[in-house]
Amino acid sequence: MSVKPSTDPKADFGSRLGIYLDRLGAALDRALPPAAQDPTRLHEAMRYACEGGKRLRALLVYAAGETLGADPARLDAPACAVELIHAYSLVHDDLPAMDDDDLRRGRPTVHKAYDEAMGILVGDALQTLAFDVIAHAEMLGTAQRVHMLGLLARASGSLGMVGGQVVDIESEGRTLSLERLQSLHARKTGALIRASLQLGGVAANADAQAAAALERYGELIGLAFQIQDDVLDETASTEALGKTAGKDLAQHKSTYPALLGLDGARRRAEALFDEARAAVLGLPGGGAPLAWLVSFIQQRTH
């Protein structure tokens, strides 16, 4: 039986992190086909692709929903779905035709642990499973499910994550303007982060004002997260990152440190984090769970 987190305002969101991660793990386990089910190699690889990671996007769903008083049972499906989309994107991002990476989350990427064809098929299967999870979420109303499906589809497609990936590939070896770089990452990284907040809001039946605050927070966190990623790619080790360090420089990609300098990029990220905190002050309880996540993200080392 799942455990409902305490919403004691005296306890910060961090005290409930383990409970939410357990809920997410249980939701993923229910959603993913058993590894022993035919085709076994595909199902084993799908589960492999979903292991580990920061689970940030799912936590954003839970934090947004908790802030607005949603029953955690209504948040499990969208949290699981956004994590499946994120996992699929990493599997495809690591393929030889994309970033051609051998390491993810401190171990071989899916196409290295299995093979390239399996990497493509695993990504395809995880993506479609995400929409299946929301479509069959009995705890949510029909209108909520339809709304969520639209949000996730737009964030994942050509106007969101996939479109950002295309621009990223086409930009290798070129120096982008700061405005173009920000537009790229608003789609490649930011779209799914923003959608995570929106999904939590839909589950909580957020009004227009709350929905706008969540969307603004998502935009700010998404950009700050990407700037932070660019800085870590230059300053952290492969062991700390769990993926190959220095890939952006090796592939001659435009990055925030390249355009702003390391110190300038750090300052820009800090300013965005502060703006994100301010964006949720008008939400119930001052948006405390979301404010806590800002500090959590600021302190990350990978």
Main features:
mainly alpha; 302 residues; Farnesyl Diphosphate Synthase; 1% strand; two-stranded antiparallel sheet
Note down, in words, how this protein is organized:
By secondary structure, this protein is an all-alpha fold. The chain has one domain (14-298): Farnesyl Diphosphate Synthase (Orthogonal Bundle), CATH 1.10.600. It is built from 16 helices and two strands. The protein has a two-stranded antiparallel sheet. Helix 7 runs antiparallel to helix 10 (190-203). The longest helix is centred in the C-terminal third of the chain and has 28 residues, at 208-235. The two termini are 33 Å apart. The model has no long low-confidence stretch (mean pLDDT 92).
Please give a quick description of this structure.
The protein is mainly α.
Question: What name does the CATH topology carry?
Answer: Farnesyl Diphosphate Synthase
* CATH homology-level superfamily: Farnesyl Diphosphate Synthase
Going across the biggest sheet, name each strand in turn: 1-2
* DSSP helical segment count: 16
End-to-end Cα distance: 33 Å
Q: What composes the largest sheet?
A: 2 strands, antiparallel
Low confidence ranges? none
- Total strand segments: 2
Strand content: under 5%
List the secondary-structure elements in sequence, H or E. HHHHEEHHHHHHHHHHHH
- The figure for the number of domains is 1
